[in-house]
Amino acid sequence: MAATADELLAMLTFVRVVDGRSFTAAASTLGVAKSVVSARVAALEAELKVRLLHRTTRKLSLTPDGLTLYQRCAPVVAAADAASLAVAGAGDTPRGVLRVNAPVAFAEEYLAAPVAGYLARHPDVRIDVAVSDRMVDLVDERVDVAVRVTARLGGGMGVVARKLASDRTVLVASPGYLARRGTPQTAEDLLGHDCLAYALLKISDEWRFRDTARGGGGESTYSLPLEPRFTAASGALLRRAALADMGLAVLPSFMVAADVAAGRLRRVVDTFVGTSLGVHAVYPRARPIPAKTRAFVDALAVHFRIPRW
Questions:
Q1: CA-CA distance, 24 to 142, in Å (whole number)?
Q2: Contact 114, 306 (CB under 8 A)
Q3: What is the pLDDT of residue 6?
Q4: Positive/negative CA dihedral, 195, 154, 45, 64
Q5: CA distance to 160, 179, 182, per residue, from 175 (Å)
Q6: Beta strands per DSSP E along the chain
Q7: For 195, which DSSP code?
Q8: What are the φ/ψ torsions at residue 264 (nearest 5 degrees)?
Q9: Residues 117-146 as b or e (16 or more Cβ within 10 Å = b)
Q10: Cα–Cα distance between 77 and 175 in angstroms, integer?
Q11: Do residues 129 and 111 make contact, with C-beta atoms less than 8 angstroms apart?
Q12: Which DSSP letter does residue 272 get?
């Protein structure tokens, strides 16, 4: 049976709700009241005789039936958006304010060059960069593009991610600290040292070591019951603490590569197993993707095609 015009409109509304992760965001995108969005989705559920969304006061999530419907409808909506844009002949020129979010240390060390190149090519764009080590909600905080350096990239159905580069964590300490406290040779030596830990992750997940006692070519690892002397929810602050001779820290290579090369920090404990990290550009799943966003993500991808660390 063919879908009616009302059902097609309800399906479009449903896709906007999922992409925006809220009824409010969908209402803003469609230019209608939130109550209209809610009524359309409710009518669609009634017509299909299934529940499409789990609703709570804090978040929305797809039911299995909702996921199936979204996977079928989203490409159709995307094609319609692209067709509309092509016919209109607009939206090809990046313009407006581009809001970017990135980790503090990454932004300070690596973001200026690609931003400068982007602004030189696109004079009608202004960029507003917010730096934070926490995982921001792109929709709620109106972020166009976020750079995320992480081992496990989350974000859900409402965002798109593009990998820019790979990295790995390293265990480092300053020569001053090592001269005062001695250089740890084994993982067990760390039990007598000052450890500086990242507050947003479990130390048992970040501080892992090869189990050499097992022998062979296996990848068995283990952790120790380390009690950090200092914790912080900022990688940049942990780097500064390590440089200030406060102790040993596990940090992404990009953050300390220059310090290691210059001798300001030293890598220690050969059995340390660094965590593989991905550097990603993440942006809301808009229909269509704004030209300013698309061009900026492309600029980041070109800039980081050759590893910078």
A1: 13
A2: no
A3: 85
A4: negative
A5: 42, 6, 10
A6: 53-55, 60-62, 96-102, 125-131, 145-150, 159-173, 195-198, 209-210, 221-222, 230-232, 248-252, 266-267, 276-284
A7: E
A8: -75, -25
A9: ebeeebeebebeeebebeebebbeeebbbb
A10: 58
A11: yes
A12: B
For residue 74, give the nearest of 19, 30, 119 by alpha carbon: 19
Q: Which two tokens stand for residue 37?
A: 């969005």
Closest CA to 132 of 235, 256, 5, 11: 235
pLDDT of amino acid 201: 87
Give me 8's structure tokens. Answer: 């097609």
User: Which one, of 272, 276, 277, 268, lies nearest residue 172 by Cα?
Assistant: 268
Per-residue pLDDT of the chain (309 residues; tens, 9 = 90+): 567 888 889 999 999 888 888 888 888 778 888 899 999 999 999 999 999 998 876 778 899 999 999 999 988 888 777 776 655 445 578 989 999 999 988 898 889 999 999 999 999 999 999 998 888 888 778 899 999 988 877 655 578 889 998 889 999 999 999 999 999 999 999 998 999 999 988 898 899 999 876 554 556 899 999 999 999 988 889 999 999 999 999 999 989 999 999 999 999 999 999 999 989 999 987 767 889 999 999 999 988 875 554
The DSSP letter of residue 93 is S
Per the CB < 8 A criterion, the answer to whether 172 and 266 are in contact is yes
Q: What share of the chain is helix, strand, coil (3-state, %, to 5)?
A: 45, 20, 35
Beta bridge partners of 210: 221
**CA triple 135-136-138, angle to 5 deg:** 135
User: 3-class DSSP state for residue 200?
Assistant: coil
Any residues with CB less than 8 A from the CB of 131 and at least 6 apart, and which?
A: 101, 102, 103, 104, 107, 108
Distance between CA atoms of residues 262 and 153, nearest Å: 32
Burial tier of 222 (Cβ tally within 10 Å: 0-12, 13-18, 19+): middle
Query: What's the Cα-to-Cα distance from 260 to each of 91, 178, 209, rounded to whole Å?
Result: 45, 14, 21
Domains delineated in the chain? 5-88 (1.10.10.10), 96-162+280-303 (3.40.190.10), 168-276 (3.40.190.10)
